[in-house]
């Protein structure tokens, strides 16, 4: 008789993986980048520049031109001229060809974009490689397809472009946000002045090079780097017809005030504080993985991150145990390592904000849990953090932290969790984990959030509209709905 052998598996301790660094050798980084205006790379008029720093190593990456009002004016003039003379009059099917070409070039250069995104922004290479870059290419593909079919998107109406769009994006998905903004604007026949965030200008300027190589006519897309003042110059320029902004609710409010009383239209994609809700009938292991994915991957730098967890009370103990176990196996560190789950915090300022909230959470009386992991010495790092026993009135539950921090609360009934989930100023996204379709449909009609995922989280697709309720902003990006802000219908 065969002897029974017992294999002991120790799942309690973290497995050691050999490092698997992505090679950066093929990625070209210039010493200095200019502004992309009217099809040319030019210095800022007053010669000002700023540096981008790697958040994972503190190393200097490159210098970028800092655009002033004068440079923004040049960019808007170039966009207006291209709109009047080239892009506006061009046959839609010809415009589509350029947009398709941009999509294909992103796919061809995907590895380089992924590497640069991780170097400049600090996000794990797995995320940039598998999420940011492919979805960015898909947005261009998707909207290229719409360019000559607008009469089907808006049946019975004539869709005309709006004109010159001023687009301002944040640092958490630099290339992807540029794609979300540019693709529908171009497909509808608009020209653009786009500004990336100060801390993540690298892939936007790479995209400018790619757009240049695609042969897109001069002035159709202009990319200007700089800080908040550059963004304000775009918003306040009298010849910008439409403002598209993704960023904080605070800046969104400033923009709304700035354009009040003008003819400018705006879409605002702002902050979030998503509820992720686990019912006792949910597949607990999948739910825990989804919760972890929803907040810790990409360091919680996701506007729709599932930052508030609501667990049905009778499964609280098992869910918290599994969350803690999973947290202790997350690999925090070098974004360029393919094993890394949690990368660097994007900037010192953002790390200060997160640390401020960690302190506030403890002072408010929530119970903090962090795994016992070692953080790299250089760069900006934060351990994945749970706040147990959090309550509705806590600031860590009400305010957007934008870091790898998850608050945990419990509930007994559906009505209770709906009340709690809706009780924030935000309404961008939410998640529901349950075996019952009826519960999903009930909740999706009552949760005040623009996107609700069921038994999954943080899934993006160019065909699905995305956007918020309440202080999470207005207007939709993605899908058929994402065309509307870029057309005038008659
Ligand atoms: P932010 O400070 O609002 O910055 C967003 C962009 O606006 C940046 O390019 C920024 O420039 C620029 N900006 C700053 N002040 C401005 C002004 N007065 N006028 C015009 N533009 C101005 O936000 P962030 O810290 O970069 O990003 C984090 C926030 O974005 C979070 O609240 C997050 O929830 C939100 N977000 C929302 C979505 C969504 O789809 N709803 C997606 C991603 C992020 P500089 O950075 O160069 O100063
Ligand atoms: Mg940077």
CATH class of the largest domain: Alpha Beta
The domain count comes to: 2
Radius of gyration: 23 Å
How are the strands of the largest sheet arranged? Answer: 14-15-16-13-12-18-19
Shape: globular
Integer average pLDDT = 95
List unreliable stretches of 5+ residues. 1-12
Task: Return the CATH topology of the largest domain.
Answer: Aldehyde Dehydrogenase, Chain A, domain 1
CATH architecture of the largest domain: 3-Layer(aba) Sandwich
* Share of residues in helices: 25-40%
Q: How many separate helices?
A: 15
Number of strands: 22
Percent range for β-strand residues: 15-25%
Structural class: alpha/beta
For this structure, what is the CATH homologous superfamily of the largest domain? Aldehyde Dehydrogenase, Chain A, domain 1
Spell out which ligands are present. NADP nicotinamide-adenine-dinucleotide phosphate, magnesium ion
State the separation between the terminal residues, measured CA to CA.
Answer: 84 Å
Largest sheet: 7 strands, mixed
Structure, described:
The N terminus is likely disordered. With 490 residues, the protein is α/β, with parallel strands linked by helices. It contains 15 helices and 22 strands. It is globular. It has a seven-stranded mixed sheet with strand order 14-15-16-13-12-18-19, sandwiched between helices. The protein folds into two domains: 257 residues, Aldehyde Dehydrogenase, Chain A, domain 1, CATH 3.40.605; 180 residues, Aldehyde Dehydrogenase, Chain A, domain 2 (3-Layer(aba) Sandwich), CATH 3.40.309. The structure holds NADP nicotinamide-adenine-dinucleotide phosphate and magnesium ion. NADP nicotinamide-adenine-dinucleotide phosphate binds next to α8 and α9.
